Amino acid sequence: MVTSPKSPQNNQASSPPPPVAAGSGPAPLTTEEQNAVGILPASHWTDQPIEEEDTVDDGASSIGSFTSTTASLSSTIFEYRTVHGRTYHGEVGNAEAWEPNDQRHVEAMEIFHHAMLVQLDGKLYLSPLDKKKVHRVLDIATGNGLWAIDFADEFPNAEVIGTDVSAIQPSWIPPNVKFEIDDCNREWTWAENSFDFINMRMLVGVVDDWDRLFRNAFRCCKPGGYVESCGSSISFLSDDGSVKEGSAMDQWGKVFTEAGKRLGRPFTLIEDDLQRKGMEAAGFVDIEFVDIQCPMGVWHPEKKAAERGLWYKIAIEADLEGYINYLCNLVMGWTPEETKMYAAAAKKEWNNPKIHGYFWLRVMYGRKPE
């Protein structure tokens, strides 16, 4: 039996620095600051011998194009920021999203959506929903909108609203779906008791105040309705010591953790038990959670676990540099070449069957009392 990660109890972490203003970017961590938390110097990765075939190939050219137009929106929404050749959302609220919004990353999101379905055995949600009672649904940080579209197909009589800070959703959508530009970190403007179900998937490194997020969700959720949050840990673990200290997989958790502190938007969703604490503080009841151990790669002897690991690896490798560009280049202060070589080292470890790394996914849901 797999042992799930224990939920910390009243851990008092040091206060993170205040969030940086949207669009301005944080001051990079100094070398001394990185060394103090065990992050290796960026030059370490450029010194590693990586064979040509091990360098990162995002694979986007082999995936069909994913068109996105939202002509009715103000053109200012498309005034994106550029960081080392990748584009990010413009100024919307207090948002500081670390994932790109360009075509290359949108295509990777398609694969990620499928990878998440594989993690949940083909399910879009785990909350015990009654289809007859689900009439209005909110999908926070919808990304490319595929979850909202699939949910709308499964619930044709429900209105589904997807929100995001980037207008990257498709224009051809089911009639019961609509997308809006919004930052979930601001006070929500929907009326009290508006939604039967609110979905929040993979908001690690996005939310600046998880308690406020769940307070907003509680207020906007109808009595008897459900709010569900799916997120992942940021650290790779191994039960046999094959994820070694100083390896690319070991450094992944350190880099993301410290970058989240500098941004004021934590990646330690599971490590600090932010979902449970936020839901309980907001007033949700019947809170349940499911922990899923996800291998990174195909090393696991069990077929289902290996499939989960394969699809997650494919999804991240579809735009690996896109996932780390903002954090490594802008927050850590690495050069694009150093970031590229770190990505190559991580990919090499993920494809090594002798390295038995995994991380945790947690799906937590709660009901608003009637």
Automatic annotation (TrEMBL):
<feature type="compositionally biased region" description="Low complexity">
    <location>
        <begin position="1"/>
        <end position="14"/>
    </location>
</feature>
<protein>
    <submittedName>
        <fullName>S-adenosyl-L-methionine-dependent methyltransferase</fullName>
    </submittedName>
</protein>
<dbReference type="Pfam" id="PF13489">
    <property type="entry name" value="Methyltransf_23"/>
</dbReference>
<comment type="similarity">
    <text>Belongs to the methyltransferase superfamily. LaeA methyltransferase family.</text>
</comment>
<dbReference type="GO" id="GO:0008168">
    <property type="term" value="F:methyltransferase activity"/>
</dbReference>
<feature type="region of interest" description="Disordered">
    <location>
        <begin position="1"/>
        <end position="37"/>
    </location>
</feature>
<keyword id="KW-0489">Methyltransferase</keyword>
<dbReference type="GO" id="GO:0032259">
    <property type="term" value="P:methylation"/>
</dbReference>
<dbReference type="InterPro" id="IPR029063">
    <property type="entry name" value="SAM-dependent_MTases_sf"/>
</dbReference>
<keyword id="KW-0808">Transferase</keyword>
